[in-house]
Amino acid sequence: MSSMDISDLISANQGKDRYVAPDFYCIDDLLSEEQKLIRSSVRDYVKRELSPIIEHFAQQAEFPRHIVKQLGEIGAFGPQLPLEYGCGGMDYTTYGIIMQELERCDSGVRSTASVQGSLVMYPIYKFGSEAQKRKYLPKLASGDWLGCFGLTEPDHGSNPGGMTTNFVDKGDHYLLNGAKMWISNAPFADVAVVWAKNEAGVVHGLIVERGMEGFSTPTTHNKWSLRASCTGELVFDNVKIPKENLLPGVTGLKGPLTCLNSARYGISWGALGAAMDCYDTAVRYAKQRIQFGKPIGGFQLQQKKLAEMLTEITKAQLLVWRLGQLMDKGLATPSQISMAKRNNVEIALKTAREARQMLGGMGITGEFPIMRHMMNLESVVTYEGTHDIHLLILGMEITGENAFV
Ligand code: TGC
Ligand code: FAD
Asked: Which domain holds residue 94?
């Protein structure tokens, strides 16, 4: 889409987003003035630049590529990473708040930001050499470059430890072979953080750059979910990787799983944003839609739906607020993060499904964001560890017994 068409779309739809965030337990009182200021500026950006265009891009199954630079400008890429590499230097609660505001608009937008910040910049920051940090982080933070994260393979999704993508040491370089599937941002990514096994079967992280010979990124078509996010494959056919592109700071599966802790944390805030948007839309509709001579919000059945949505949203808000504190103190455990990701995506999906019903036939149209959220959340409940996998992580924490195998 040309920039002229985008500005027409923005003008035509400006002001239509009337979102007001639910805050039944006054959780705002628990946030700092700075956190609220950042939230307000991201919310303004979303209302001004994203809400007017998102439905169009989702309907067209097109990635709004122009927003990558904008997301960099508003500080959505790696806000939790240090200032010295061009990042935000903020706390994890602020990171969560930003993810919530973006996913309130669309899970695909949050996906773009969480892949970039938690799955590309974070591993480079945490496990990269000083030269790698200086080379990649500022350009990724500003949105000049887009990154992607390659862990999942066609035959290894929930069980990434079985991966077959591999590299061999050729003296002055590595030779990478294999394929990754379901990779967010892949078709447009400038760099990919790829997890692969060496000759000894040990997992390492490698930075692969677009343009390297033998590296291709075919697009995944026909998705009914995350249509405004681009998904693709990463195919490596004897790709020569310079030795300085290996992440020196980690070996083994704990490398990618450590990055997933950060991204799953962001999703727990983000999915809640989608739930809050569905709830807010349903409340407004219930007050306006007249049937049998009165607003449908006056019927007990509809009130039950709204009361239960708000209850679950409020519980989920408290969960992520506390988890944010634990993240900032470095105390959050992977299973605490699993609980929040699992719970908040589930309540978001349930909220979206109930809200969609409350809008009747209008609920299936693009006039309202609910159906789009609902379809998006089917990906969110699957990626970064499925609903089942997070339950098994919790089960293992509780019992000490491993039910994966
Ligand atoms: P297991 O033997 O349990 O563990 C292997 C090593 O990893 C360590 N570890 C962790 N370290 C840090 N954080 C965590 N959360 C960790 N979980 C495990 C563990 O201590 C061990 O370390 P060491 O030193 O002893 O070697 O591994 P397993 O093979 O039995 O599998 C465990 C399991 C199932 C929990 C894990 O593989 C898993 O979480 N599976 C789900 C896969 C997944 O989440 N994939 C996500 C792909 S990326 C994605 O979806 C991006 S979507 C992006 C978007 O668009 O937003
Ligand atoms: P499978 O692992 O085949 O699971 C199928 C079903 O079996 C699931 O219901 C699962 O819960 C269940 N199951 C599996 N194992 C067990 C068990 N032990 N016990 C009980 N039930 C089990 N990956 C990346 O690396 N990078 C990305 O950027 C990325 N982006 C994505 C974007 C989208 C839109 C989607 C849909 C996926 C993305 N993924 C990405 C991949 C995602 O992480 C995987 O889809 C997910 O981990 C599940 O793997 P799978 O699809 O192979 O399902």
From this structure: 3-142
Ligand 2 near 224 CB (within 6 A): no
Q: Into how many domains does the chain fold? A: 3
Q: Tell me, what amino acid is at 336? A: Q
pLDDT along the chain (405 residues), means of 10: 87 95 98 98 98 97 97 98 97 98 98 98 98 98 98 98 98 98 98 98 98 98 97 98 98 98 98 98 98 98 98 98 98 98 98 98 97 98 98 98 92
Instruction: Say whether both 173 and 117 belong to one domain.
Output: no
Which residue CA neighbors atom 19 of ligand 2 most closely?
404
Is 404 a domain residue? no
β 203-209/231-242 pair status? unpaired
SS3 295: strand
Domain end, chosen from 111, 142, 173, is at 142
Helical spans, DSSP H, in 234-333: 254-288, 300-328
User: Among residues 49, 55, 312, 384, which one is catalytic?
Assistant: 384
In the reported structure, the alpha carbon of residue 256 is separated from the centroid of ligand 1 by a whole-number distance in angstroms of: 7
Contacts of 182 (CB under 8 A, 6+ apart): 152, 157, 220, 231, 233, 383
**Whole-angstrom distance between the N-terminal and C-terminal Cα of the chain?**
48
Q: Are 123 and 259 in contact (CB under 8 A)?
A: yes
CA of 167 to the centre of ligand 1 (A): 21
- Domain final position from 245, 275, 292: 245
Note if 397 is an active site residue.
no
Number of Cα atoms under 13 Å in the Cβ half of residue 3 = 2
Minimum-distance ligand to the CA of 379?
Answer: 2
